[in-house]
Design goal:
The complex is a heterotrimer of chains A (44), B (226) and C (229). In chain A, 93% of the residues lie in helices and 0% in strands. Chain A is mainly α. Chain A has one domain. The longest helix of chain A is centred in the middle third of the chain and has 36 residues, at 8-43. The N and C termini of chain A lie far apart (58 Å). In chain A, 0% of the residues are buried. In chain B, helix 2 runs parallel beside helix 6 (94-123). The longest helix of chain B is centred in the middle third of the chain and has 30 residues, at 94-123. Chain C is mostly helical and 229 residues long. In chain C, 72% of the residues lie in helices and 2% in strands. Chain C has helices spanning 2-20, 49-73, 76-107, 116-136, 141-169, 189-228; strands at residues 23-24, 33-34. A two-stranded parallel sheet of chain C has the order 1-2. In chain C, helix 3 packs antiparallel against helix 6. The two termini of chain C are 37 Å apart. The chains are: A mainly alpha (44), B mainly alpha (226), C mainly alpha (229). Chain A binds chain C through residues 9-10, 12-13, 16-17, 20-21, 23-24, 27-28, 30-31, 34, 37-38, 41, and chain C through 4, 8, 11-12, 15-16, 19-20, 41, 205, 208-209, 212, 215-216, 219, 222-223.
């Protein structure tokens, strides 16, 4: 904890990385969903 | 497609607009009252203070900008409302209609600006012009730039649902470069700078007018035709 | 799929390197960044703020090009692409404005002080706002597409004027953009590598988002067409 208090830069780093992973995961899941939809609509 | 525009037909459209304006006096009356009310508000707000050069130059162009916005908005809307669009489609090429309307807006804006400037000079004592040549050129070039940009935006606005309210919103980003340079050069007219030093500003204004008119001429077809 | 994995790992590395690499006055190894005098840790914003602004401009240009394409071909697909690009551009524009404003608070002391850079991004925001206001006020699809294309072309043409006009009125405090007026890139190699990979990563993310949204809007459009039949 003391280490983080002295190096607040690392807190910024952790938050940014979490945000980026969130965005990345969201985009991946969107990609999959749209692929499924495309296949479904093209089959009809 | 033949795009050569006919100066006589453009003049005819201009004369038609001018006559109908003289008959109804919609734009003229509204504009004159608009200018007077805004100036009155400014005078009440300023009261006994003497506004600095920057502020008085800015206020002049605020008055001109907003009165132009309220006056030009109906350029094409009136045609839509009266149902005369189809007739215009039949008798004239799009470019001809555009130049006819541009000419009308130009004259209207000139009359309005002369009125505004004269009133402004009389009512605001601290607004003393030191170099008249810069000031007159600024008003002239500012007016033609303003009317060129507002004509094409008016044509766009006439096809949308919310006709009046959207007009200043759409025009502002387009007019901002012109307004910035015009306010700057009005300021230098008040400071009494030599005309040679203001040449660069005038070049920008002329370039603005030429670019906007050329682009409007090319794009007007897409706006005008349904 | 490979590209997505590379993008995911690459941008993670950029974030870690951009934030965590120590800043020393005399960088000796590749894993040290030089200290920027007067900015210190605040200089790290360059790895994130500049790419956002860059994407914002790229998106504006894409939207403009697809708008012109629409006017030439009257193909509704181009309009879909044009709106999508404009929407993403608006998003990145807001991000660039907000990050810039926060940085400006800690460097210049105020969130907003009408620096030329701030003025130009403000104008870009205004143009995007007006563009969407115009679109929402027209119901007929073809009319909406062609009018908004015309508007974005006119708006795009006024942008170069700012480049001439703004320097005549005020001078900027903004640190040099990617390339300074002498046309040289002056960055330490480590910084340059991180910066350029961040730029590529952001552009790739933008392209990915763009692609997803275009595919989705296309499906939506097809569905609407089917329902009408």
């Amino acid at each position: 904890m003391e280490f983080l208090n002295q190096n607040s830069l690392y807190i910024v780093l952790i938050i940014t990385v979490i945000c980026w992973f969130g965005i990345f995961g969201y985009l991946l899941s969107l990609d999959k969903k749209i692929k499924k939809l495309e296949e479904k609509i093209n089959k009809e | 497609m033949n795009k050569i525009f006919n100066i006589n037909s453009a003049l005819t459209i201009f004369i038609k607009d001018f006559r109908s304006e003289l008959r109804t006096r919609y734009a003229l009356n509204a504009l004159i009252m608009f200018v007077i009310t805004t100036l009155a508000i400014i005078l009440f707000a300023v009261a006994n203070e003497t506004p600095s050069i920057e502020i008085s130059a800015g206020i002049l162009w605020i008055v001109i900008f907003f009165s132009a916005m309220s006056g030009m908005a109906r350029t094409f809307v009136s045609e839509e409302e009266r149902g005369t669009v189809m007739t215009l489609h039949l008798i004239a090429k799009p470019s001809t209609v555009f130049f006819g309307k541009l000419l009308f807006n130009l004259i209207l804006l000139f009359l309005m600006n002369i009125f505004t400037v004269v009133l402004y000079l009389i009512l605001i004592p601290s607004f003393i012009i030191k170099s008249y040549d810069i000031f007159l050129l600024t008003i002239f070039l500012g007016t033609i730039g303003l009317s060129a940009a507002s004509t094409i935006i008016a044509a766009i606005i006439a096809k949308s649902n919310t006709k009046g309210t959207l007009y200043p919103v759409l025009s502002f980003p387009i007019l901002l470069p012109l307004l910035m340079i015009v306010i700057k050069s009005t300021k230098s007219a008040l400071e009494g700078i030599e005309i040679a030093k203001a040449m660069g500003d005038f070049q920008v204004m002329i370039a603005y007018f030429v670019v906007i008119t050329a682009v409007s001429y090319l794009l007007f077809d897409y706006v005008w035709k349904d | 799929m490979v590209f997505k994995i590379i993008l995911g790992i690459g941008l993670t590395l950029v974030i870690i390197a951009g934030i965590a690499l120590p800043m020393v006055s005399n960088p000796s190894s590749f894993f040290e960044l030089p200290v920027v005098p007067g900015l210190e840790d605040k200089a790290r914003i360059i790895f994130f703020h500049v790419p956002t602004a860059w994407v914002c401009v790229i998106a504006f240009i894409t939207s403009l090009i697809y708008g012109i394409q629409y006017l030439r071909t009257k193909e509704i697909l181009y309009d879909i692409k044009s709106v999508t690009a404009a929407g993403l551009g608006f998003l990145f524009c807001i991000l660039a404005t907000v990050t810039g404003a926060i940085w400006s608070k800690f460097t210049w002391g105020a969130f907003w002080n009408w620096d030329p850079r701030q003025t130009s991004i403000f104008v870009l925001l205004l143009i995007y706002g007006a563009y969407f206001a115009l679109r929402s006020s027209i119901e007929v699809e073809e009319k909406r597409a062609s009018l908004s294309a015309v508007y974005s072309i006119i708006a795009g043409l006024t942008v170069p004027f700012f480049i001439f006009i703004i320097p005549r009125i005020v001078s900027s405090l903004h640190p040099d953009p990617i390339i300074n007026p002498q046309g040289k890139i002056h960055m330490n190699p480590t910084m340059l590598v991180i910066f350029l990979s961040s730029l590529t990563g952001f552009t790739a993310v933008y392209y990915w988002m763009f692609n997803l949204r275009v595919r989705f809007s296309k499906l939506l459009y097809q569905q609407q067409m089917k329902e009408q039949e």
